[in-house]
Structures are given as C-alpha cells and as structure tokens.
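User: Please predict the structure of the protein below. I'd like the answer in structure-token form so I can feed it into my own downstream comparison script.

Assistant: Understood. Taking the following sequence of 392 residues as input:
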Amino acid sequence: MLKRLQRKTLIPTQIAGYAATLLVGAAIVMLACQLYADLRPLLTQQTDVFRGHAITLSKNVGALQSLNKRGIYFTEREIEELERQPFVAQVARFTSSGFHTKASINFAGQGLYTDLFFEGVPDRYIDVRSEEWRWDSTSNFIPVIIPEDYLSLYNFGFAESQSLPVISKGTVEQVSFTIDLDGNGRHRSFRSRIVGFSGKINTILAPEEFLEWANREFGSAATNPPSRLLVELADASDERIPRFMEEHNYSIKQDELESSKMVFFFRAAMAFLLTVALIIIALSVAFIVMSLNVIVQKNHDLFCNLHAIGYSPQQMARYYRRTVGIITVADMVAATTIALILRSLYVGKLSTVFTLEGSVWPIVIAAAVLTAALIGIYNYIILKTIRGTVEP
C-alpha cells in the first residue's frame, strides 16, 4: 500500500528531466577523463631525437646589443637561475671556436676556400650517430656535422635557381677538405669531412674535445661566456616555459615549444569540458532535489498521516531512494556505453596516426565514483527532507 501511494506522488516529467540531464553530464565527464588519459602520453612523451627534450636558447638581439656585444652572452648568474627552474633538467653550454678557421678544397684543378667557424656541444645532445665522431690530440682528422637545412637550402634554393645538380647526403659525406687553424702565432692543418647532418642543432659542429684543445692552442687567453645554451627540459609540456622565456627576453625557435603550447591548450580544453559537464550534473542534482522537495511539500499531509500510523522516515524514504538510485545507475550504464562507443570512434581515427595503448579504466572509474557519490547524496537528502517534514 505504501509503495502504491508513493508512486502516485512522482511526477514523470521531472524524473525524465533528471535522467536526461544526468545522462548528458555523466557521458561528457567519462569521455573527458578517457580522452585525457588516452592523449596525455602522446603530448608528453619524449619523442625527440635528443635524450629528453632539449632546446637551443639565446638572447634576443636588439639595438643595444648591436653596439655592445657583451649583451648577447649569458652570465653565470643567469645560467644558475635557469638551472634552478623546476622545468629544467640540465643546462649545457655551446663551446665556440676562438681562433681563425679556413676550409679549402681542390676542385677541377682550382683551389676553393672559405672562412669557417665551429661550435661544440656534449655528445649526448647530438642527434647523429657516427663511428667517426671522435677526436684526440694525436688525431689529424676533424669530423664535422652540419645542419640538414644547409643541404636543403642548396638543393632546393641555390641549385634550383642556378640550374646546378642537386647533391645527396652520401655524396657530401664522401668529400674531404682541409681545415687550417690560425692563432697565437701558430698554424696547423687538418683533414676533415662531413660525417653527418643534424636535424636539431643549427650550427657547424666539431667534437667538443677538439674545440677545447684548439681554443687552448690557438685561441685568446680571454674566453667569452656562452652566447647559446642547450637546455634539457624535465617536462616539455610545462606551461611555465613560454612565460619564463618571454620574461627574460630569451630567444627560442617557436616549433621547439609546440608541445608545451599544445599540452597547455589541451589541458585548458579538458578543464573547460569537465567544468561544463560538472555544471550539468550539478543542475541535474539540483533538479531532482527540488522535485523531491516539491513532492514532499505537496503531499505533506500524506507523509504526516503515514508517520502517525507507524511508518518511520526510513521506511517512507526507501521507495524514493530506490527509485532515484535505479534511475541513476541506469543513466550511468547508458552514459558508460555512450562514452565507450565514442571512444572507439576516435581511437579508430587516431590509430592511423598514433598508437593508443590506454585502457577504458578511466571511464569505469569515473562511472563508479559518480554513481557512489550521487547515490550517497540522494540517500542523505531524501531522508533528511522527509524527516524534517514528519518530525518538526
């Protein structure tokens, strides 16, 4: 009898409105959690050819630096400040050549030469693996690495405009030339050859050991501080990186921070999506709570009479608890199904480009947490509302 009486108090349109809003909100929450779990590894994994993710850092050159060159160098204080940043794992300095360098080659019976410069970085940052990349003081051979862009500029720019033949990497690596070093009243010649092409470091590289030796032998006594740094990032997706670079007027290639910007916008989008979904769920909760209050107030005399003949608040609340609980669980099952279907659709699209190895546990966990939290809230509110009505 109690169940039949209470069933008549329910308003179907209000129950349907609650079910619809909860379904939409829960599906969005589950999908957002799953999407974040699936895509976050793709945005934060270390896919660079460097160990970790390293960026080349220099200072912006302005009018003052044109007049006073000292402004382009990094001081020890600036380097120490950079090393203290939480997003920095390690800082390495570019070693520059402090002596005059000339490269020459005999071609078609003619001697060709050009002035040159070298820079060096620790080997762990170099994206070229070659058995010839080594040097010691007894060696008369200097291995050289140049940027891939240099060869591309020749093949697709200069050679195209001058109707010259294009050159492959293998051809370039077969050409030997002579390196002449001058400084401190000394002169020495070395054999040299390009042993690789770097896709990341935009400079002409020689082994760091060679540059340290040559600077002692041919360079000036005063060594300039580094004008460029290689910064290994602990987390390339840290949104504090672009802000720090801008505040200190440091220059960096924009594409080196693309992952940081991408993850920042991805997190912002996920936060916005979750916020909208939680607002929808909160509105559905408010909707059902208001509906229950209306039911209780509208049937005030019925609840008081039921209490007077011996029904406790817990007994009267049981039907409403069960009804709201069943609707909530059914909504969560439907929302889980929808989220799984949508995930299979975007995984099918993305799997052609990326490898997604995540599980569906984020959806299951989100469904379980939402179900437990909502049922707990409803059980408390329903009992409190009925008790407040019949036990003034």
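That's the full token string. The radius of gyration is 35 Å.
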